[in-house]
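FORM 7B: Structural annotation worksheet

SECTION A. Query
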Amino acid sequence: MTETPDAAPRTRRRDAEQNRAALLAAAGAVLNRDPDASLDEIAAAAGLSRRAVYGHFPTRDALIHTLLDQRVRRVLAAVDRVEHPDPAALLALIGVTLWREVEAVRVAAQFAMRGPYQHELALGLAPLRERLRHVVTVGAATGRIRDDIAPATLARLVEGAALTVLDEAARSPLDATEGERLVALSVLAIAGFGAHDARALTAATPGLEA
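SECTION B. Predicted structure
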């Protein structure tokens, strides 16, 4: 069969896209084991040469920036799909969703959230914080969430609950299910729920039962 004139360029583009995806996947896995891993280690994990890395990312920082952007978009998309009519349950579900997205990449997530890229990450996650503020405001107005803490502050505390559990998970053998439970209960405690009411709400809310 004779190739059409543009078949070779299409093949090269497809190969380039596959190599780029492989590099990002390898970077996520390698950096989760060692946040200081070099480009050589990332390239080796992807089965590519260092030269191939530079064909896509001129520096290690450029690769990490792209990886962070990819992860942030994934987190925002996951949170955007979360809905519930009860603001308190919605807060807990958002917290658990955030935990689920970062739990599998604990070390890399800690590195990004506490390390030199935290400002960039904070900007990327601004839509998440805006949604949390909205949920808190609605919850306070309807009496479902405490109203003695400013919505912006309470939103940051809710986000911090998931990250605190992430810290604990990095230090101890905390499995995913227990992490979800701790995040949900921590978020509800911050929102003003007592232990009994928090347990009752998580047991009655699909997605929080665990």
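SECTION C. Observations
The domain at 1-58 is CATH 1.10.10 (Arc Repressor Mutant, subunit A). The longest helix spans residues 7-33.

SECTION D. Sign-off
Analyst initials: ____
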